[in-house]
Amino acid sequence: MQREITQSGALLDPQGRLTQVGWSRFPLRDCNLERVAFYSPPLSLLQPLRVKRWDYYAVFTPRRFFSATIADLGYAGNIFVYTLDFSTGVLHEEGLVIPLSKGITLPRNSTEGESHFEDARARLSFRVTPTGRQVSVAWPAFDQGKGITAEFSLHCPPTHESMTIVIPIGQKRFYYNRKINGLPAGGFIQYGDEREELNPNESLGSLDWGRGVWEYSSFWNWASASGFLPDGRTVGLNLGCGFGDLSAATENCLILQGRIHKLDQVKFAYDAHDYMRPWKFTDAEGRLDLDFAPFKDRTARTELVVITSEVHQIFGRYSGRVVADDGETIRLDGLVGFAEEHHARW
Q1: Which end of the chain is more exposed for a tag (fewer CB within 10 A), N or C?
Q2: How many whole angstroms separate alpha carbon 311 and alpha carbon 308?
Q3: How many other C-beta atoms can be found within 10 angstroms of the C-beta atom of residue 124?
Q4: What CATH number did the domain enclosing 77 receive?
Q5: Sheet holding 288-303, edge to edge
């Protein structure tokens, strides 16, 4: 059920087919999207418009959740930033739709380069460094001129493991995704007159790096969290389902001190008519048993000519147990994270 990729190589063969399917602890596939081939001539000229690429950074601080994204959806780009204050529940989000993704730069692989967008409204830069990631955001008109600026680094040494999956979607499409949790964050977030200094012993960041070709109509669930155990160890969760062929591998895992502890199939049990009711997470092997108590529903909708999207990203607290690979039972008691349901036509 869980096929681990251990050898490096190209993501796609000369015919545009996946060379390997499975999961890995490190990004071992070269993302050679120039070989994408799912349309026959003359429609093959339209293939670049169907490729999706994004970098989604997030950080949990004692006070807030902050996130920034640069995405290229092929025929349009999407730039968005949002922040949630845990004590007040105040959430503010703003986004930009960029026709034909003009001005968006995203590197070939998750291990290199700089993701960048800048115009008169906003500047976002995500840069890979030898020891981690550097996130820089400046959006002066954010929240009616209140403005938001973020400058922080995420510590990610080469030995830090990540959940990386390569899965097929139908016969000709695929998803190559890397998620990194539990990255100590240092720097600051300035929101209006409020400045929050980020302490690596209190704040943890994460990355959702995605590349692939999806069905036009898509659905998925995703859950994520990063925090600290009472003994000071970093702990994280990454759970997902609902997209592609997951028979060879899922993205489900516990992340403990930067090491992946792989889980099998995970069930998301929730009320799709009332997302604020408690959620339940269990796995097929009896290693995961978590309750999720929501406290905020972030609902984001996009309705354009060819793009429609609705996401319910529910913030809450995880409590329960997860069994690590060595048999240790990890107890979670109020770990702040999120769980989401996403429908998209893109």
Answers
A1: N
A2: 10
A3: 24
A4: 2.40.370.10
A5: 259-262, 253-256, 234-241, 217-228, 329-345, 308-323, 288-303, 279-283, 266-269
* Helix intervals (H) in the chain: 142-145
What's the number of domains the chain is made of? 1
Q: What is the pLDDT of residues 103-159, one digit of tens each?
A: 999 999 999 999 999 999 999 999 999 999 999 999 999 999 999 999 999 999 999
Range of the domain at 271: 51-345
**Residue 12 covered by a domain:** no
Q: What is the pTM of this model?
A: 0.96
DSSP structure class, residue 146: T
What b-and-e string marks burial along 222-249, b requiring 16 or more CB atoms within 10 Å of the CB? bbbbbbeeeeeebbbbbbbbebbebebb
Q: Quick one: how far is CA 123 from the chain centroid?
A: 20
242, 173, 185: which is closest to 63 by C-alpha? Answer: 185
pLDDT tens by residue, 294-346: 999 999 887 766 678 889 999 999 999 999 999 999 999 999 999 999 988 87
The residues, ordered by sequence, that sit 6+ positions from 330 with a Cβ below 8 Å of its Cβ are 229, 235, 254, 256, 321, 322, 323, 324
